[in-house]
Amino acid sequence: MMKSAVLALCMGVSVASAATILGLGVEADYYAPVASGDFSYTNNGVTTQTHFNEDAESTYQVGVYFEHPAPLIPNFRLDLTPEASFTGTDGALINKVSINQTDITPYYEILDNVIDLDIGVTFKVLDIKVEGAVNQKLTQTIPMGYLGAGVDIPGTGLRIAGDVKYIGYNGDSFTDARIKAVLDMPAGLQAQAGYRYESLKISDHYDVNADVKFEGPFVGLGYTF
To answer: Which domains does the chain have, with CATH numbers?
Structure first.
């Protein structure tokens, strides 16, 4: 039912307006998230339970997007957050949980002016590795609704933008949200800084029980062609 709802959302905006010109952009950020909450995973009858102690970690996130003027073909965005690793406790034991995220997002532009508005669907591929007393791996693809928005501040070269990826069903939910300020610089360069918030609540699905949050600031550069 969750997949059907998200796919219907994407189909429902297939008549949305397209970009007026071709566009390609890339961005890369230094990202410093903090993990809190509890995560457990059962594999081959063995359960690991990890309590995150709000330790700050450092990783990076990169994104690339492509927009075009064809009205019925969605634009495309790809976001990667490679192997952010967090340590936590399992009783007297220490676990390290590493999470690799790949977000594949086809989307349509509803508005493309001083104010931008995008809507689509994200397929988030999670690769999770637990290392400790027991070593475990989990790979799962989760469909999520996608909403992106931005507004230019006239005369400043500054833009405020953000996006939300979300799915919720029967008490379970997954949220991935970002907000950032983007400053245009010469030759297509951009400087950006913002904050990212992720919340995962799962009860007995995918052999996972979780109530965790990952959040923190990021800063980086972008380039538009």
So the answer is: 2-224 (2.40.128.90)
91 pLDDT exceeds 90? Answer: no
For residues 204-211, give the mean pLDDT. Answer: 90
Using CA atoms, how far residue 77 sits from 52, 62, 132, in Å, is 31, 11, 35
Q: Is the pLDDT of residue 211 over 50?
A: yes
Q: Is the pTM of this model over 0.70?
A: yes
Distances (CA, A) of 84 to 5, 30, 58, 156: 30, 12, 7, 34
Residue whose C-alpha is closest to residue 103's, from 66, 64, 70, 136: 64
How far apart, in whole angstroms, are the C-alpha atoms of residue 192 and residue 47?
40
Tell me how far apart the alpha carbons of residues 94 and 184 are, in angstroms, rounded to a whole number: 44
